[in-house]
Design goal:
- This protein is an alpha/beta fold and 393 residues long.
- It has twelve helices and ten strands.
- It has a domain of 123 residues: Aspartate Aminotransferase, domain 1, CATH 3.90.1150.10.
- α2 runs parallel beside α3 and α4 packs parallel to α5.
- The longest helix has 39 residues.
- It starts with 13 loop residues before the first helix and ends with a helix.
Length: 393
């Protein structure tokens, strides 16, 4: 595609029309990956931007509409001797903040967006706890919804956790959100392409995706939504009004084309690939458990993604283990927050002690992982753990 010349997919000339056609093919493939309508796919620079657009876009749209309602009330008040119901005794307008609920184990792009909105006093935010196995606590969610009534604007809960792979009960969460009149946003970055995902069955209104998580190019992602949900968002990036007016800017056509191809492959190979990778993941865990004592798995091992294992190596600092197991690549916590000296917030939210969190490593396998590599990695990781334990003794 790049060899055929350059152009802008938003332009009406021949080059632009050709690139626009490429984008639409990709849009359909991404939609098919998650059982959505192509017209609901908004391309972004990644899942981080999609998460920001979901939360901030929903809050700003709500505040904009509320402001319009207040303007009408002001005009009505000017022609009436009675005060609007939204006036306090002092005569000041009471503008209730939109309320967001997020899970305690969300990715930093959701968590930090929510923190920013709360800090800017644009929204109130509450955190839904999780069970020790990493799954969302539905009873706690019920309590929050009972307390807040119909004041919840949006609930954001990831499909599967990026550190433990634990899968959340999405349909049950969506049902509760909709009964409260709230939007349900789901960060499906880890889940999509690894296990079946049908947007209509999960009940998600807004869905965040990332290309590189399904072996596509980095720097491209998508927010997928129902038409009703997208209409409840305001743009976060302003300009020429591309992507339904929600994401202005010239499209990254090469990246989007790669995303579409990756989505096509993931859809076609998902079942076989999930089985293959899950078998390799289990092999890695088994090999490490046979070679080492003090190995335990974090999270619900019966309800997780096939590619992820979060392992605690007792008496071995995880950062030191990572530093001594080259060329094996793994991480402590989310890859986006790697390098942080704090223990994993996800593991702490699950009730692990800081010590246990500091001793935990996340392993992820993918399309290009092989059995030989897994067996070799197990040997190298075991050597690193033994070395770290010896140095700490």
């Amino acid at each position: 595609m790049l060899a055929d010349g350059v152009g802008n997919a938003a332009s009406a000339h021949a080059f632009g029309r050709r690139l626009s056609a490429v984008v639409e093919v990709a849009r359909n493939r991404v939609a098919e990956l998650v059982g959505a309508q192509a017209s609901g796919v908004v391309f972004t620079a990644g899942a981080t931007e999609a998460n920001n657009l979901s939360l901030r876009g929903a809050v700003e749209c709500h505040l904009r509409n509320t402001g319009a309602e207040l303007a009408v009330m002001y005009r009505q008040e000017a022609n009436s001797s009675t005060k609007p119901e939204r006036r306090t005794r002092s005569g000041k307008t009471r503008l209730k903040h939109p309320h967001l609920l997020i899970s305690a184990v969300e990715h930093s792009s959701v968590k930090q967006t929510a923190v920013a909105l709360a800090t800017q006093r644009l929204a109130d935010v509450n955190v839904i706890p999780v069970h020790p196995n990493g799954e969302l606590n539905l009873d706690a969610l019920d309590e929050m919804l009972t307390e807040q009534g119909k004041d919840i604007l949006l609930i954001s809960v990831m499909a599967a956790n990026s550190e433990t792979g634990v899968i959340n009960p999405l349909a049950a969460i969506a049902k509760r959100a909709h009964e409260a009149g709230a939007l349900f946003h789901c960060d499906a970055t880890q889940h999509a392409g690894r296990l079946p995902f049908e947007m209509s069955r999960t009940g998600a209104d807004l869905l965040s995706l990332s290309s590189h998580k399904i072996s596509g190019p980095g720097g491209v992602g998508a927010l997928v939504g129902t038409h009703a949900a997208l209409n409840r968002l305001s743009a976060v990036i302003h300009g020429g009004g591309q992507e339904r007016g929600l994401r202005s800017g010239s499209l990254n056509v090469a990246g989007i084309a790669g995303f579409g191809e990756a989505a096509k492959l993931a859809s076609a190979e998902r079942e076989a690939e999930s089985l293959r990778v899950g078998t390799l993941r289990d092999l890695l865990v088994r090999e490490l458990e046979e070679r080492l004592d003090g190995v335990s798995q974090n999270g619900d091992v019966k309800n997780r993604l096939p590619n992820t294992a979060n392992l605690r190596f007792a008496r071995a600092d995880a950062e030191a283990v990572l530093a001594n197991m080259h060329p094996v690549a793994a991480s402590v916590g989310s890859a986006c927050s790697a390098g942080a000296v704090e223990p994993s917030a996800v593991l702490l939210a699950m009730g692990l002690s800081p010590q246990a969190a500091y001793e935990s490593v996340r392993f992820s396998l993918g399309r290009f992982s092989t059995e030989a590599e897994v067996r070799s990695a197990a040997v190298r990781v075991a050597e690193a753990v033994r070395l770290v334990r010896k140095m700490a003794a």
